[in-house]
Amino acid sequence: MVDVIQACKTCLETPGSVFENLSQEEKDLLTRRHTSRFYKKGEMIYQIGERPVGILCLAFGKVKIIKEGVTGREQIVRLARPVGFIGYRAFFAEENYLASAVAIEDSVVCQFNREDLLATIHKRPEITMLIMKSLANELGISHDRTVNLTQKHIRGRLAESLLFLVNTYGFEEDGMTIRAYLSREDIANLSNMTTSNAIRTLSIFSDEDVLDVQGRSIKVVNESRLLRICELG
Amino acid sequence: MVDVIQACKTCLETPGSVFENLSQEEKDLLTRRHTSRFYKKGEMIYQIGERPVGILCLAFGKVKIIKEGVTGREQIVRLARPVGFIGYRAFFAEENYLASAVAIEDSVVCQFNREDLLATIHKRPEITMLIMKSLANELGISHDRTVNLTQKHIRGRLAESLLFLVNTYGFEEDGMTIRAYLSREDIANLSNMTTSNAIRTLSIFSDEDVLDVQGRSIKVVNESRLLRICELG
DNA sequence: ATAACTTTGTGTTATAAAACATATCTAATG
DNA sequence: CATTAGATATGTTTTATAACACAAAGTTAT
Question: Sheet of B107-113: strands edge to edge?
Fold first, then answer.
């Protein structure tokens, strides 16, 4: 079981965190009024329509950001990994959430106080610039996904999603197994296709020796071929 | 013909510009090293892969931000209206452009110097927050579009795009005619469909008295029905 | 252990939309 | 003014993929 108490420290001090260069005093300010909470796999962290109360940071686990389409089919618009913000788009846009966040693994989420965070970034413009860079980067990813999910065919979309998973969560120690164990439904919702077609196409990739699929464990056997499938569309 | 010389003043002083509350001195700093340029309808402003040299602001006209899909089909990912930044995503992500910008009307674009802009926003955190808000807002729009363009059917997608045009450029004085005169191809590229299907579906909407289409002029005759088509998908 | 439920897997059918094929209309060019 | 090119329009064919149907395997609860 993960250590919920240490979660805040993790968010503030993990290398790569936007907060890592804060002074102890500045970190204390953020820590004083923070809360952390454990979420079981499948549990909802926030829901579309709610108002962000603070800013959330994923300390441990994996989280999907989902939107409901007209057909009722769910679409994964983003995947979060530790350590990173979640729900910060709505926070900085000063809007209610336009999507929901659900843990896809047991996760721990810290919440920092709104005013404390704003005071911190006001004092430290370089942090603001880092957050801005992150938002700009996300926007680029989103534009890319819009084009890829609309224009590529099933094989290309699935290959794209698998590479996106690799990019986000990396490989296990073997350097081949994707460090993410999603349901077929989640893979489908990430790739903009039905669950049946995700299952079917995974089988085909397995038959073609591009992947080695054992339940939810997906091994990328031939990454260059996967890349080619992705690029051809 | 628009006044290219006055373009910079327009970018800095138009109500709603993030710069409108700068002091004269601060405006002078930005003005000193700025350039403005006129672009004819159809002309390219920047191209995918190029490095942003400064930050661009659309003073007059209309601009589409496009990405090339695998099939070669172009996808409009954003539409810019005056007064607003263009290419600021790449600027703040510190990346090369991931999309191209093309004038869809005769346009005037100002370019502010990189260092002068950074100095300005460093001195004025509230401007940074406004730009951040704008990026966060764009990201929400992009996530929405991802879901809508992938999940809705042709009628829903076209209705969506027309309402997006209304939202971006508004109506003419009659309160019905969309203040944007795109080619059928551009409408198709905005709606993620072939040109033929855009033309066909516009005709159908016209037959159904939802629209009154006269060449490139599109009058929204029954906005509530258009909204319903959009919502039903 | 058995039942009930969920997830995964695979074959078949139906359909939305792309691709293709022309035709007409409009705008630019010599 | 005639010629050409580009944009708009519409009908037909083809195809990718959703929708459906069902079976098998795993998981959870009683």
Answer: B35-39, B107-113, B54-60, B84-86
Question: What confidence tens digit (pLDDT) does each residue in A21-56 have?
Answer: 999 999 999 999 999 999 999 999 999 999 999 999
DSSP labels for A123-164? H-HHHHHHHHHHHHHHHHHHHHHHHHHHHS-HHHHHHHHHHH
| Structure tokens belonging to residue B99 | 């999309």
Closest chain B C-alpha to A111 CA, distance in angstroms: 19
Number of structural domains, chain A?
Answer: 2
A105/chain B closest Cα distance in angstroms:
23
CB < 7 A to strand D: residues 164-223, chain B: 183-185, 195-196, 199-200, 202-203, 213, 215-216
Which of B95, B149, B192 is the closest to A140 by Cβ? B95
- Is the same domain home to A106 and A162? no
| CB contacts, 8 Å: A97 with chain B | none
CATH number assigned to the domain comprising residue A128: 2.60.120.10
CATH number of the domain within which A216 lies: 1.10.10.10
User: How confident is the model at residue A1, as a pLDDT?
Assistant: 45
Tell me the pLDDT tens digit for each residue of B12-64.
999 999 999 999 999 999 999 999 999 999 999 999 999 999 999 999 999 99
Q: Which of A124, A129, A132, A154 to mutate to test the interface with B (most CBs of B within 10 A)?
A: A132
Higher-pLDDT residue of B23 and A3 is: B23
Q: What is the pLDDT of residues A172-194, one digit of tens each?
A: 999 999 999 999 999 999 999 99
A147 assigned to some structural domain? no
A209 occurs within a structural domain: yes
Q: Which of A76, A98, A146 best tests the B interface by mutation, with the highest count of B CBs <10 A?
A: A146
Mean pLDDT for the stretch of residues B172-177? 96
| A180 and A128 within one domain | no
Q: Residues A221, A210: contact at Cβ < 8 Å?
A: yes
CB of B232 within 8 Å of a chain A CB? The answer is yes
If asked whether residues B128 and B200 sit together in one domain, one would say no
- Residues 6+ away with beta carbon under 8 Å from B61: B2, B39, B82, B103, B104, B105, B106, B107, B108
**B139·A138 Cβ contact <8 A:** yes
**Residue A164: per-residue pLDDT:** 97
Residues B130, B177: one domain? no
B185 and B224 together in one domain: yes
Q: Is residue B146 part of a domain?
A: no
Same-domain status, A119 and A8: yes
